[in-house]
Automatic annotation (TrEMBL):
Gene3D superfamilies: alpha/beta hydrolase. Keywords: Signal. This is Acetylxylan esterase. Residues 1-23 form the signal peptide. It comes from Nocardia tengchongensis. It comes from the Bacteria. Residues 50-248 form the PET hydrolase/cutinase-like domain.
Length: 275
């Protein structure tokens, strides 16, 4: 086991990406990424952000990683409630931007400032319970593009771009990214998402195209993308070893799953990370 951990840290260092931090106290879910996690989600709607988080944060001394979320064009976080509650059930604190125009990630990035303040406020339920060293950016459609743009913030550790719009520059990414496309998406064509993945050859990046998926069926509820996006976030933000095995190593779980994915690709830097 020590040899495996050492090899993982070495490979991640070679790619220029910090090794994920272990989130002690957050329970394993096996490989049930698409199923609800062990926490009951809570929701708090604010003026600028909506927060989704576990009701019993820090019950076992654990600190919870953060996901900043960007919405698709014209909708607010409520449209993604099922997906964002799902992330909270897995132990994440989701800070969702209350904006229907999230492409440039201004409100998404200010969500990090908000959760930093709440973590330092003794009167807040978040006080001392936030893992500020592990923050991911995620979003759908225009918000998927926003998730890429949000990663210019050095506090962001990884990206999940779900069917992302085009107004971004993946060549500027400095953190690992998962690009999710839908096989039958007629709004953000898979070829466009694949081009973003190809442009991100300076980081560990993977491209997953969900078989049969359309734009709205996977975005609003998470659909079949709920599982892969949760697994990616659990690896990079929680160092979940089961999640690592889905994406990395010569026989990674998702790489060989032709029933779930119509196309799955890993770039050269991603293949350097051991499973």
């Amino acid at each position: 086991m020590a040899a495996v951990v050492t090899a993982a840290v070495t490979a991640l260092t070679l790619t220029g990406v910090a090794a994920p931090a272990r989130a002690d106290g957050i329970p394993s879910v096996g490989r049930n990424w698409a199923e609800s996690g062990p926490y009951t989600p809570e929701v708090s709607i604010g003026v600028v952000h909506t927060l989704y988080y576990p009701q019993t944060m820090g019950a076992h001394g654990e600190k919870h990683p953060v996901i900043i979320w960007g919405n698709g064009t014209g909708v607010l976080p409520g449209a993604y409630t099922l997906l964002l509650r799902h992330y909270a059930s897995h132990g994440f604190i989701v800070v969702a931007a209350n904006t229907p125009v999230s492409n440039f990630a201004i409100t998404m990035r200010s969500g990090i400032d908000l959760i930093e303040k709440l973590n330092a406020d003794p009167s807040s339920v978040f006080y001392g319970k936030v893992n500020l060293d592990r923050i991911g950016s995620a979003g759908h459609s225009q918000g998927g593009s926003g998730a890429i743009n949000a990663a210019v913030d050095p506090r962001v550790d990884t990206v999940v771009a779900i069917q992302p719009g085009p107004l971004n520059d993946p060549a500027q990414l400095h953190k690992p990214a998962l690009f999710l496309a839908g096989q039958f998406d007629a709004i953000v064509w898979p070829v466009l998402v694949k081009a973003m993945y190809n442009a991100a050859d300076q980081i560990p990046a993977e491209y997953a195209e969900l078989r049969g998926a359309t734009h709205f069926g996977t975005g609003i509820t998470g659909g079949d993308m709920r599982g892969p996006s949760t697994a990616w976030l659990r690896y990079w933000l929680m160092d979940d070893p089961n999640a690592r095995a889905e994406f990395f190593g010569p026989n990674c779980g998702f790489c060989t799953d032709s029933q779930q994915f119509s196309d799955f690709r890993r770039n050269a830097l991603a293949t350097q990370i051991p499973g």
